[in-house]
């Protein structure tokens, strides 16, 4: 059930900051604050703290709470802050309450840990989470948490559930979900949550999914915002130029290593001038040759912006 205030505030490019770590492996809150502050100043429409790109899986509850609180302080009410939550139902509720204490505006509910549940189990998990917190919940569909249209309709009827973020990439299924929810006179916010969502942005817009998360915004907000403007305005020439010359090669580079959807982004943030440290195990740093390719790609993307006059 879509309700204010969060649902009405999520409009624009969504920023999923990386979590900064010091050389000794501890959370570096000063660097994290600088990263969030820069993203908000650059024009992020919302901050999704401690989610997938933010290595939610690698944070202790105490670190999670401190990072969410820091993001809330840096956003200072200018944009909403949504915090990740996950694992089993009991832990998801615990993280939800920590996020509430830290001042978050909502939650992104990531798939339950490890198990492959049936639809009844998934529905019970998300409804119990929503019932346990006053924060609005966005359900993240991917991996072991793929919803049927009927389950999506049930979630749309659930107080506190306001949205569905799709990281699965089955456009046929998403069209059926959108149609089923609409046919019942219900409403959900829908998000394209695929890694490097810009690559599929035009396809998702075709079924009415306009919101998306941008990993590129973490390290090249100028590129991400220019693409978002072009996509929103129907500037197909600029969209195609950036997809062909920057986003598609970036996805091909990302696919060269496991965990690159996080570690490559974090390396790019360091390249851009904010020392956010390395990823925590079990993730690994990108290979040196891939970092060199990444730097060249960012340069090429900016050259394409000049060519397009964007």
TrEMBL record:
Superkingdom assignment: Bacteria
Catalytic activity: 5-dehydro-4-deoxy-D-glucarate + H(+) = 2,5-dioxopentanoate + CO2 + H2O
Keyword annotations from UniProtKB, A to Z: Lyase
Listed pathway(s): Carbohydrate acid metabolism; D-glucarate degradation; 2,5-dioxopentanoate from D-glucarate: step 2/2
Name of a matching Pfam family: DHDPS
InterPro entries (UniProt xref): Aldolase_TIM, DapA-like, Dehydro-deoxyglucarate_dehyd
SMART domains (UniProt xref): DHDPS
PANTHER family on file: 5-DEHYDRO-4-DEOXYGLUCARATE DEHYDRATASE 2-RELATED (PTHR12128:SF19), DIHYDRODIPICOLINATE SYNTHASE (PTHR12128)
NCBIfam families named in the record: PRK03620.1
Family: Belongs to the DapA family.
Name of the protein: Probable 5-dehydro-4-deoxyglucarate dehydratase
